[in-house]
Amino acid sequence: xxxxxxxxxxxxxxxxxxLTRETAVIAALAAVLLYANAAVSNFDSPLTLYYLFLDxxxxxxxxxxxxxxxxxxxxxxxxxxxxxxxxxxVGVLYAHAGMPMWAAALTAVAVGAVCGSLNGxxxxxxxxxxxxxxxxxxALYRGIxxxxxxTEAVTDFPDSWTDFAKMRIVxxxxxxxxxxxxxxxxxxxxxxxxxxxxxxxxxxxxLNREAAHFSGVNVERTKLLLFVxxxxxxxxxxxxxxxxxxxxxxxxxxxxxxxxxxxxxLGGVSIFGGRGALHGPxxxxxxxxxxxxxxxxxxxxxxxxxxxxxxxxxxxxxxxPVLNRVAAERAARKQK
Length: 336
Description:
The chain is mainly α. The chain is built from 15 helices and no strands. This is Autoinducer 2 import system permease protein LsrD. It is a multi-pass membrane protein.
């Protein structure tokens, strides 16, 4: 690990900042936007960009804590089910139980944190694989959501709340108001991961769990906190999802985990842990959102969009070992 550290910092600063996977994703996003503006009609209109940001906001929110989970070498596949469960809870507590809207939203977020704590406890303290655990809780949380409402949908929400979820920062502009709380959460996540001792412990766990433990990092508590944070933020995304579409259903956000995991891995976060920066997944979310928006404007079906997202996910997973192997072969040739 020390050898890698000195090898990386032996390069000029401009290469360390510019020749990275995160920069490559940002460049790909810029290229897609330029191509879409030129080839797709109405893509650059304020209305199209406004709906693009509304659509990707749940992905942006969930990508913040999920990035930190994956950096530790774990994964959480239950995020979309937590979104669906929190959506159902908001509808049931407000429409059926008569709870005030703000209380229903806070309760849903608290339940999301409890869901994350169950995932974190089973992974961190029981020692079960996160892939197996979160596949199970994916089905569990989705089943609870569908069991609470069945095929029913709750649509009677206060106009003040649904209008706020779709409000623009500037009247007639392309930026929705919801980007402001996202920016606040993103700034907090950047500080937590990149500038705090807690964040250094997250990277240490991903690089070598045993070394992190002996260096003083509380591995179990760190993983538990990250899963709790992921559950709470996923539930917050579920509250927004409900107000954005004005509907609480058990199948809300079905398949969303594919998109957010694809965006995080596409943004340069290693599926094996120990590597990644938050600006990469944010660019990855915007890239997937721009591609999906352009394809919809061109009349492509949802299945075609899912195929493209699946290809991006496979490519992002394969890219890490391939690039590592190329770098190792280059280093071996230099030594010879």
